[in-house]
Amino acid sequence: MAKRYKIILFLFFIANMAFAEGGLDSLLIDLDQTILRHEIYKNRREDRIHDLKEKVAMAVPGTIAAYQLNDCIYREYKSYMCDSAVLYLTKNIRIARDLHDQEREYKSKLQLASLHSAAGMYQEAVDVLKEICREDLPVSLVCDYYACKEQVYREISGNSRDPQTIRRYEDKSFVYRDSLMMVLPEDAGRRIELQEQALRADGDTSEALRINNLRLAKIPFGTPEYAFTSYQRAMIYRQEKNREKEKYYLALSSLSDIQSAITDHASLWMLAELLLKEGDIERAYHYIRFSWDETNRFHARSRSWQSADILSLIDKSYQAMVERKNRMLVTYLTLISVLTLLLISAVVYIYRQMKCLAEARNHLQETNERLKMLNDELHQMNDRLQSANLELSESNQIKEEYIGRFMSLCSSYIDKLDGYRRMVYKKVSSGQIEELVKVTRSSKGLEPELEALYKNFDTAFLHLFPNFVAQFNSLLLEDEQVILKKDELLNTELRIFALIRLGINDSSRIAEFLRYSVNTIYNYRAKVKNKACVSRDNFEDLVRKIH
Fold it and tell me: pLDDT digits over 117-131, tens only?
């Protein structure tokens, strides 16, 4: 069990050290927030005091029960409001005296002397102690007597400015401290506290810290005992000149003071003094103002003396800071005014430029629209030119194809004409006139030539337009499409529209080429149009577009 206790103390020590080094900023923020909420903690104490006062009102006056309730009220007022605490101690002294209860009378007087000492009323504290006869004290109050004497003389020594007075009362304080340690049990908390004070006075800070660790480990945070013990730890670090840890434990002590609704804020004004030295004037000012207001509520004369000088110094520093900030504010306002004027000028300039830009954009948009129109016209012209080029190319191709075939046919017909001439000459020379008349009267010789002509035309045309038949059929109804016979390239209907595709639209010229009458050609054209699956009016135009 003892081993486990040592481990817990060790872990507590390590955690405190780590947080002290890294958590001061967050702790100060917590302290700022707690100060803002201090009325909550005061209201809790006021509620407890109110309940106790109601109980006193119902108790029989001048009885032990009334004495005990007054003692409870005194303990609530002890660190909260000095005047009220004195009032209830005075009531208890009167009750004890009326009851001839010397022990309770002395106990209340010792409490009163201790309270006067804490409030800086040292003469009143000494006068009360003079009323107590050491020889008449019961054993139960001896420790309280020595503790009260030690406290009174320590307070007088700590708040005196005369070196001889300081030394004289310090010696008296040490004497009563030693006397108190002699009568206290070994494991008493007060004895351990006195040991720590003695070690700190002797400069043995490491051992004092060890004892303080033991004390802090047993005390819950947010209690008056924790506030006092952490304050004593801060004083050890002050002696070691460890400012960061001193501030940390002063902040912890201040937090516990506020949460306990203690108005005697020694820790807070000492922390404010350290923050002032480090340049954190604004926070120091808020701390000392809060501490001063709370001290005035407590009516602790010594605390008022102690914090008056630092309050004055912080107030001057704060006012200087405020004036400096005001000067900076005026400078910034002037600069902002100049910048505002420049900004307005820039906005006006930008507005004008944007207006000009908008006009230019409008002109540019109009120009772009005109360019777009011109581009569209150019595209249309390009399309027409391209179409014309395609038609020209196609026309050239047709011309080249048919010129070649025309020259070939002409050469063939010249050869045939020459053969026909020799045949005529031979028959005339031999006197075969009747035979010659018979040959020239018959038209059978023309049919093979016409077939050869049409076959030559069909071959040339399909060479130019190999997909003509299929595309022509796509313009006709499915059951009316042209079906060619075996070895047939084109038929009469297809030749008519082949000539139309080649640009020969005149029915008389088509009739002349195909050796039909004009009416026959008209009938063929009308018949095919009636079979079309497209508009009759557009049929021949679509035929001309077959490629």
Answer: 888 888 899 999 998
